Amino acid sequence: MSETQSARHQEITSKDRIFVALDVPDAAAATQIVSEIGDGVGGFKIGLQLFAAAGPAFVRELARSHRIFLDLKFHDIPNTVAMASVEAARLGVWMFNVHASGGREMMAHAREAVEKFCNTEGMTRPKMLAVTALTSSDEATMKEIGVEASIDEQVVRLAKLTQAAGLDGIVASAKEVTLVRREITDRSFLIVTPGIRPISATIDDQKRVTTLAGALADGSDYVVIGRPITQAADRSAALKAILNESE
Hints:
The chain is of the alpha/beta class. The chain has 11 helices and 8 strands. The chain has a single domain, classed as TIM Barrel, CATH 3.20.20.70.
């Protein structure tokens, strides 16, 4: 990492690296969380549950005042993913993702379509990420679906494929961040890490998790934190405690 790249990485504060997962059943619950946390984090993640419940209009509304990571993990034929990606960009989100397992053609076609749309509309292109392996997956899960490679090998393979397709980065567990950084030396290649937990928390249904401090030390650029904040009795206090752990 060059001195310039290192300085740029350090300019972003820990709080600005956090996206809080709005994995809640409706817009009212999401709005309550956003109102409690406000600008105390870098942004908010909207996934399948809330998107299905509240729809694109809610995403568009929230994107006017906050950075939104739209986590829908598009995975389909190249043209379908490209058109869905254009609609994600139209919503004004700051970042969204596709599935790297859809292949290089799918990812590159999506990037090209979004770039063309954003250039035509005079918009800044959202950051485009590709999901490697879900944090709920382990070696047994991968073997069930016919992936004989280890999770480490699969994540690195998909990360390289993502870079070759011209996307901005990947979503990956902190357990693989060091490996990816070793193989992909371009520090502008983003790694977003879900499955972040406080030191004292249980891992719930996620198998490959870590702390905020651990993720940032390993080289994650942004992290996603959900239940440890959103299900806390005092969400602001829970966020503050997680930030204190990272100092």
